[in-house]
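Translate sequence into structure tokens.
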Amino acid sequence: MDFKLTEEHLMIRDAARDFAKAELLPGVIERDNKQEFPAEQVKKMGELGFLGMMVSPEYGGGGMDTISYVLAMEELSKIDASCSVIVSVNNSLVCWGLETFGNEEQKQKYLTKLATGESIGAFCLSEPEAGSDATSQKTTAIDKGDHYILNGTKNWITNGGSADYYLVIAQTDREKGHKGINAFIVEKGWEGFEVGPKEDKLGIRGSDTHTLNFNDVKVPKENRIGEDGFGFKFAMKTLSGGRIGIAAQALGIASGAYELAREYSKIRKAFGTEICNHQAIAFKLADMYTEIEAARHLVMKAAWDKDQGNNYDMSGAMAKLYASKTAMDATVEAVQIHGGNGFVKEYHVERLMRDAKITQIYEGTSEIQKIVISRGLLRD
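Result follows.
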């Protein structure tokens, strides 16, 4: 076991940390209050290569490994999880899926723009009646020879109103069950494609979450990803990697809350001394740090598995399950350590606590992660 990061890894981590402090921290509270999409920050993240970190340089990406990606995700998430989820979706769910399973024409047309941040992507799987049960797709794509006719509704879509390209999962042949599902690349502006109102969310309020409606949208046959019936497998494989990104986001939220709580405990006084000198607070910090380190090791192991070409279904699920729980626990304790100030927006920890909750829900709830883990344990 070698726990030492390379110089390149350290440079990427430090670059993400510096960017988060310089570009994401200013205005983060205002963006949260106004539910304002961070368009300027996203543009800068694209210019710096954060939106296509793992994409091959051949298609305009950074060609980095998964460890580099999770290091950047952690640092961005310490400051602004609304921005980091945009990075996660574009990298893990959109760019990776296109590069791994798309054909050359699709990569040249779409991936090159997504990898550089010129365009933003969205991943459209969830529906009003198909959240955790992804096999129950109601959105249909009827084969018309040289094109498909897409009808249905997708909801809780990150980047829903700001994306340029959408990877849409739809049912083509219901009799075949999950083997009758396909994945399609849909462009914003196509006739019949409508973006619904923005969701008013508990956390990650700067993130752009919408319901999407497809009404007889004509999708060219060349925009189907993979062979006929590959859509469900595409979605599951893509989500397995996406969970590593969300685990890193949860880790960052927890780390950010811990760092704020530690620094606050050194300056806030009670009973004649800084509160960090009281065992009740010191032990909270000790527990937080221990759980965060455990989560970090799980996240890094999952990233390493992916980079090594190992199966990362279980390690990714374990990382997300534990890191998301740690994010909730750490942020709640951070608010408690801040006392009354923790309930006030200017101290940031209340926002981190609200942001933490979604990491237990999207890209597979904690209950789904337990299904993935238990199936892996009982497979043999």
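Note: The beta strands are 121-124, 140-143, 147-158, 165-171, 181-187, 193-198, 209-220, 224-225, 269-270, 273-274.
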